[in-house]
From TrEMBL, chain B:
One of its GO terms (molecular function) is hydrolase activity. This is Chemotaxis protein CheC. The keyword Hydrolase applies. GO terms for biological process: chemotaxis. Residues 10-45, 108-143 form the CheC-like protein domain. The lineage of its organism: Bacteria, Bacteria division WOR-3. SUPFAM superfamilies: CheC-like. The keyword Hydrolase applies. Pfam families: CheC. Keywords: Chemotaxis, Hydrolase.
Amino acid sequence: MKKIFVKIGEMKYGETPDILVTMGLGSCVGVAIYDVRKKRGALLHFLLPENTRDDDNPFKYGNPGIRETLKFLVNRGSIKSDLEAKIVGGSVMFAQLLKNPDSAIGKRNIEIARKILEQEGVSITGEDVGGDYGRSMEFNLESGEVRVTSYKAGEKVI
Amino acid sequence: MRLKDLNKLHLDGIKEAANIGSGHAATALSQMMGKSIMVSVPEVKVLKLEEVPYIFGEKTPVVAAVLTNFFGDITGRNLLVFPEDKARLLVDILLAKNPGETVGFGEMEISSLKEIANIVSSSYLSAISEFLGIMVLPSVPSFTLDDLAAVLTSVYLQFTDEDDREYAFCVETSFYFTEEAVKLEGYLLMIPDKMGLERMLKSLGLL
């Protein structure tokens, strides 16, 4: 078993028995895509909803980051209907200082993740999103489980 | 102006203003706490957005963080950060408890840390205002206790201009209390918005 660390704005691939790890999700969203048949998958840690300025790193953005992640797995032989997603993060910190907390980046990141996954026909089988606190996630590629830890809300498995 | 085009002259000018700000902030904090404080020379940082979680280094511990917006002639925010264990020691001093007595962060503890942030931010900004001949006011402070990486990325992503998110800018100052048995340090980040940064550079005659 090896732990593979996914930094902010990155996507990484792993196979059983690897564990994909990403830390410090605040308003960012982590998307774990699991191939239930081949027991492998990828983890994306994106920062912002849309790439509006031709940034050359797609993985900083929900769109196209999620589509690129799915494409990556399909190019490696996964069948799209075998893929499932879990999404984590998208919190809103310091909400009292935001002019418009309803359109906070965290919320928009969650929305874009749900939207793109729906458009791509990949079902979301687990979520731990929102709130006002940071999270870390460990994506177990043997079981497909995602362990979410946070300083404020403790630990849970989705 | 683009952040990555800032030259050494620009950065030195901002550093000079920040130096005056942090000097005043340290004096105010020192008087409030009745303790002497050493303050570092400010560091001006321009980094890629992906590097934001690691402004203070690779490790991202749990921190007590207080964010204050500022507005007026320049807009932006100040983030005051203490490692969690150091924040507890600070509260011990402020509430005249024995070292180690503070275990968690209830209303009293949070409000004393916000008060510290208020003093630090206000004195920092008023010194900068005076130096640059502009008006800047701080907002009410907002507190969180969380993973440093989550705090830093949230601060940058939630508040900075949508169209300028390739690079991140901040002025970092660290300080510590000199008489404590355990090193008690804190960090202040000043994060002006792009317009605010331009206004500061104009006031300095650099733009």
